[in-house]
Structures are given as C-alpha cells and as structure tokens.
Amino acid sequence: MKNGLRIMSLFVAAAAVLFLVPALSPGEEAQKTKEEPKTETIEWMSYDKTLNDARESQTPILIDFYTKMNCPRCYAMEKKLYTNAKVIKEINAKVFPVRILLEKMTPSEKKLAQKFKYGNECLMVIVSADMKVLFRDNQIVSADKLLKALQEL
C-alpha cells in the first residue's frame, strides 16, 4: 500500500510540474505583448545637401541649431522630443530635418544662422522651401507644440 501511495504521489507531483510550470512561465501570449525596442530615429540631413531637394520638392525644412555643451534645452529635446515615436514619424514624413551643431558650423550654416538672428543660442525653426519662417522657438519645444506646428504645414 505504501508503494502504491508513493507511486501515486510521484505521479501527481509529475503531473503538477507538467501542467503548472508552463502556466507560471511567460508563454507566447506574454511574449507577444512585450514592446519591440524602438529602432526608428529621425533621419537628420545636412543643410547644404537638403536645400536643393527642399526647393525641388517644395518640402519644408526643420532646422535645429543645437550644442552639445551643457545646454538644458538641447539635452531635454534630445531625450524627450527626438525620441517620441509620434514626433519621429511626423518629422520624417513632413519635413527635411536638419541639425546644425553650433560649435562646428560650415560657412553656409553660419550665414543661415545670421539670417534667423539666433544670437549664438540654440534655436529651432521650420522654414518653407523658399526659406520663409513657419515656426520659430528658442526654448524647450514640447512634443505637442511641435506636432501642432507640423500638422499645420
């Protein structure tokens, strides 16, 4: 009788392991709900190469004059604005995005910056293909504010 009980308890324990372990571990459904890592980024372009393309296609240009030197505005925009999936999608779809590093501006970029009277400070502008200013902000630009500006293009 003891052997019969022992065999029966081993059988019950084995059945419990077979049925409970898969329920406790993440299955296919749990794995399907995990977010995929974000791989989409803004396709930044150089100003000199973008200008002709913008004129030919009549596509606006988003220009971000930025610095890597201890700038709270630039840091916040890099971490929050330019990683926002909706912002990335809209920028890539609606404008030619250009980032100009203030410390390494080319002569044509310096001339462009002077046109906007940026005062050696960080600045975001959206311009039409014929360089008319459609949006201008030298503060931290929120996702909502930029999305609204992009939707109005």
Automatic annotation (TrEMBL):
Entry keyword set: Signal
Signal listed as a keyword: yes
One family name in Pfam for this protein: Thioredoxin_7
Gene3D superfamilies: Glutaredoxin
Protein name (Swiss-Prot/TrEMBL): Thioredoxin domain-containing protein
Domain (Thioredoxin) ranges: 10-153
Organism: marine sediment metagenome
